[in-house]
């Protein structure tokens, strides 16, 4: 019933209604779903809304960008950004930063165009040679990549979270084997944004991926853990320290505890396995200092750990391995479990698992 929807839009536009967003959203919905819609007509509608004051300039621009992306109208989107770039350069108080950001989005469009060409080049070098890219296509892909990378590099002149552009730039540099340039880009990005967590993560993961600067990248990893104790890379650092020292430490125990206290990680099998394994080994090796640290940790956090981590009402969607980890930890520490261990055993029985076998299997995995 597009005709009826169009009539409603006309009535809203003609009347004095405070329905700016409704007009814009309903109009974009119409254009997204109508078979006769086109980028030209949609752009006309968006510009009309902006001229009438029916919507904010940024909101209308974003709606048009989303429309073009959904319909893969990259050519029209490129024209849109180029037009804005030309208009911005004519302004008296033009900003070099804004200029480079617009060029960055042009680089994103180049990146989108480059991806299938890069995939074709990979196929031509692999088993699917017949489906791979021709020499002309490979050259075309290289030209597009160079144009995109030039646009992305300009953003390194400014401070700011340009993660979306940097990730694409690194992907292209790695694809063509320019590892030194990629490393230099990431270092420069980190220098410009020393407080950015992602800047540290990008450099660390790059160095790890290519096995570069082993000792230095651990320093980056340690800093990441300090900046974000709930980050999954905390487990990487803990495993590194564990392998280096041959066991757990007081610092590692507290880092894992902080990691598990994050809501997203509260049922992390890797985290609970590490904590449980450390406690078991502390008993076997008679590491009194580490065992005392674990008991002190429980003493400090038991007030909220019991309802948060050791509630007797086990979630049906929970992982039995995590339950066993927690139950084993409580047994090793010899603390009042408030019925948690028996709840785990009952739940395992309901699932049809033999409790003893389940504990033994878990112990073997540790």
Automatic annotation (TrEMBL):
Protein name (record): Putative tata box-binding protein-associated factor rna polymerase i subunit a
One annotated Gene Ontology cellular component of this protein: RNA polymerase I transcription regulator complex
Pfam families xref list: TAF1_subA
InterPro entries (alphabetical): SL1/TIF-IB_Component (IPR052669), TAF1A (IPR039495)
GO biological process per UniProt: transcription by RNA polymerase I
Source species, domain of life: Eukaryota
